[in-house]
């Protein structure tokens, strides 16, 4: 096998300090394929002990072959430094997803966490070289990737013990808040299988509520150690709330005994899980192919590949449609042990076509890689991979024993996790039916998005005869008071109101939630028009002199500094007072925007810095 070379194309993530770069794997006679190069920090690259540890961990992760784990290709030394090579997944972190839609629909949240649990269970069973379970210990929305093909992948394997905690005074976002009690008390040495169960439970909780666990507690560490998570609000199934509560029990022995057991409990609580194409439609609704950042990365790949093909005479990549394998039935999937590749050579994957590139995402200690066009073994995304893949082979007989265990688990769980469409909720059944009736190359129909609670465009109800009074059906999440631009009141959503056809500016407000915004909606000439609006959040940081009281929209927030206060999109009023001095600022917040107010009572209020 010839030696693979790697070419860096530029930062994968926006912002200073990004260590993940988009790149190409080059091999004579083979089409270039996209990869991600994650550069090791200088203090690791220059420390022989840390480098050796990183190399051992990477080599262990290289043999992992599971559709729900980000594939690691190896650790290489290039002119620019030491880089870990991973697959490039066309998708977004779960954190980025929740910045666009803070609350993920329960069926999809359940599916994403259940899939992540499969990958985590695989790693537990594969274990460390000493036979102990390989515990991740850093599972959170920042370390889960959701591809635009509907696959959830766990990132971080291969660099867990050397991942930086804090650098340059910057805190790694949400890492402390995503800790199990045993981690707070004993660090990484105290983690166990149930630690990962706890972290997956926290992730499911935030997906369903839109709230970072224990964020509002006076002391997040104390809350993690002593307080139970609040119950999930309706209409989230009570059975799913029970799953979250058990997964996040303070004592490890009171949680689910394995990540696979957690997954089975999620499936039972939901009565089944939606298929991969449902997740794919959800992702492509949130991040359409014409998205500016996604398109920019696709262009970088296109130009980079074209340059290499022209310069080195390599074959051009085959269009993805031509190389996509046919879906494989779940029951026919046979677990197979994967032998480690030779240590002296970087592992090569089958050539794949570049996919549209993802939008920027936060760099995390567990590799942030917006990761990968899946290599050939995991390409059949249309078939939901419900069965845990077998762990890689070991030097001893332990590998064979683990393979047998996983194979038996797979056979035992097929009947429990493969769900027919008739068993799914009615809205998801109609959603899947609409997908079946639509050409795969076309975007999902509006009814499809409505089934997931994402639709925002007007859709006429064909059951109303022409010539009748036109009616607006308005559904808003969260519920708000709706009115007209001329001051007229429509009522509290969801509502039906008789309106003349045409465009209307609808005000949306909620004093308790701090919502003051509007939408321009079109009422169709005949019948009923349904609009569904999902209001998203942005984040505000307030820096002010010690002791300053911060109020937003008349609500007392706390004493400065205030870090990452989440507010709904729209108009807000910020008031900061200290020792009789007042500083006031009116501002508008857009979805996912980050504003920083640096309050100086000596200067008049000025515009905030947007991140």
UniProtKB/TrEMBL annotation:
GO terms for molecular function: ATP binding; protein serine/threonine kinase activity. Residues 338-361 are annotated as: Disordered. It comes from the Bacteria. Pfam families: PEGA, Pkinase. Keywords: ATP-binding, Kinase, Nucleotide-binding, Serine/threonine-protein kinase, Transferase. The keyword ATP-binding applies. Residues 6-267 form the Protein kinase domain. The keyword Nucleotide-binding applies. This is Serine/threonine protein kinase.
């Amino acid at each position: 096998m010839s030696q693979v070379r790697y070419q860096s194309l530029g930062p994968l993530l926006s912002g200073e300090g990004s260590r993940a770069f988009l790149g190409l794997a080059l091999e004579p006679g083979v089409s270039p394929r996209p990869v991600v190069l994650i550069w090791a920090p200088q203090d690791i690259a220059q420390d022989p002990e840390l480098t050796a540890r990183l190399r051992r961990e990477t080599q262990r992760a290289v043999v992992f072959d599971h559709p729900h784990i980000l594939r690691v290709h190896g650790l290489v030394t290039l002119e620019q430094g030491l880089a870990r090579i991973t697959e490039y997944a066309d998708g977004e972190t779960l954190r980025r997803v929740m910045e666009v839609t803070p609350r993920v629909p329960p069926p999809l949240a359940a599916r994403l966490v259940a899939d992540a649990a499969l990958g985590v269970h695989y790693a537990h069973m594969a274990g460390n070289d000493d036979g102990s379970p390989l515990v991740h210990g850093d599972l959170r929305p920042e370390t889960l990737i959701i591809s635009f093909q509907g696959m959830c992948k766990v990132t971080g394997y291969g660099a867990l013990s050397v991942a930086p905690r804090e650098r340059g005074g910057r805190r790694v976002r949400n890492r402390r808040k995503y800790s199990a009690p045993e981690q707070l008390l004993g660090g990484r040495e105290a983690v166990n299988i149930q630690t990962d169960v706890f972290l997956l439970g926290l992730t499911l909780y935030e997906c369903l509520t839109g709230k970072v666990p224990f964020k509002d507690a006076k002391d997040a560490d104390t809350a993690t150690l002593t307080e139970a998570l609040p119950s999930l609000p309706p209409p989230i199934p009570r059975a799913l709330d029970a799953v979250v509560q058990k997964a996040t029990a303070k004592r490890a022995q009171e949680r689910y005994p394995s990540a696979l057991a957690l997954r089975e409990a999620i499936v039972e609580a939901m009565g089944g899980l939606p298929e991969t194409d449902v997740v794919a439609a959800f992702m492509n609704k949130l991040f359409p192919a014409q998205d500016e950042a996604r398109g920019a990365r696709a262009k970088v790949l296109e130009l980079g590949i074209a340059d290499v093909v022209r310069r080195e005479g390599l074959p051009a990549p085959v269009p993805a449609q031509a190389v996509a394998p046919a879906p494989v039935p779940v029951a026919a999937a046979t677990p197979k042990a994967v032998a480690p590749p030779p240590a002296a050579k970087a592992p090569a994957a089958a050539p794949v076509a570049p996919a549209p590139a993802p939008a920027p995402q936060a760099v995390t200690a567990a590799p942030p890689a917006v990761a990968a066009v899946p290599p050939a073994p995991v390409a059949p995304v249309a078939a939901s991979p419900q069965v845990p893949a077998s762990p890689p082979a070991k030097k001893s007989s332990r590998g064979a024993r683990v393979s047998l265990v996983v194979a038996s688990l797979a056979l035992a769980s097929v009947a429990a996790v493969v769900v027919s469409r008739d068993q799914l909720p009615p809205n998801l059944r109609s959603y899947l039916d609409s997908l079946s009736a639509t050409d795969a190359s076309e975007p999902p129909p509006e009814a499809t998005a409505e089934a997931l609670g994402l639709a925002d465009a007007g859709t006429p109800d064909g059951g109303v005869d022409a010539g009748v009074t036109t009616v607006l059906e308005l559904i808003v999440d969260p519920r708000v008071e709706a009115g007209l631009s001329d001051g007229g009141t429509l009522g509290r959503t969801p509502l039906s109101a008789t309106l003349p056809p045409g465009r209307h500016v609808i005000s949306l407000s909620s004093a308790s939630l701090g919502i003051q915004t509007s939408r321009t909606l079109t009422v169709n000439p005949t019948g009923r028009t349904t609009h569904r609006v999902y209001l998203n959040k942005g984040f505000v940081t307030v820096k002010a002199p010690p002791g300053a009281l911060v109020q937003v929209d008349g609500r007392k927030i706390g004493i400065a500094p205030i870090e990452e206060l989440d507010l709904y999109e729209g108009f807000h009023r910020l008031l900061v007072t200290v020792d009789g001095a007042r500083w006031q600022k009116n501002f508008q917040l857009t979805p996912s925007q980050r504003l920083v107010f640096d309050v100086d009572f000596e200067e008049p209020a000025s515009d905030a810095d947007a991140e």
